[in-house]
Specification:
single chain, alpha/beta, 5-stranded mixed sheet, 5 strands, globular
Length: 151
């Protein structure tokens, strides 16, 4: 999670919402890929941290199936990312802060609980949740303060 938190800080430094992710092989401990939010800079609405990390891991593995790997992300995945996680056959998802508005794992549609979901990873939430939430709160607090100062 510390690697994902560093990626989130890197995203914030670029003006992106601070969410970071990494794909890890639990058998070896190898960090296969790291992703940070980047929709603004990439001009790509799908460039969420999870998607970035999944794409890189699939490229490195030479396979879009990432069975048995773990995705670690600082924020509860949204519906788009949950769908990608399911399609990639990720074995386990570990996330930090819950996302009551945009989350789709323990909030909203609870994607992995739906009968139409064809692959369900193990899910562990709340890992370093306060660190993840503090990073997000600080980022948005600073944006609001900057917006009100210029308005």
């Amino acid at each position: 999670m510390r690697i994902a938190l560093q990626a989130a800080q890197d995203a914030a430094a670029r003006g992106e919402t601070p969410v970071g992710a990494c794909v890890v092989d639990p058998a070896t401990g190898e960090v296969i890929s790291i992703g940070a939010n980047g929709p603004i800079g990439a001009h790509d609405p799908t460039a969420h941290a999870e998607i970035v990390a999944l794409r890189e891991a699939a490229r490195k593995r030479g396979n879009y199936r990432l069975t048995g790997l773990t995705l670690v992300v600082t924020l509860e995945p949204c519906a788009m990312c949950a769908g990608a996680i399911s399609h990639a056959r990720i074995g386990r998802v570990v996330f930090g802060a819950e996302d009551a508005k945009g989350g789709a794992v323990v909030h909203g549609p609870r994607f992995f609980e739906q009968p139409t979901c064809h692959w369900r990873p193990q899910v562990t939430g709340g890992v370093l949740a306060e660190d993840s939430a503090d990073l997000l709160r600080g980022f948005f607090r600073a944006r609001r303060a900057k917006g009100s100062a210029s308005g």
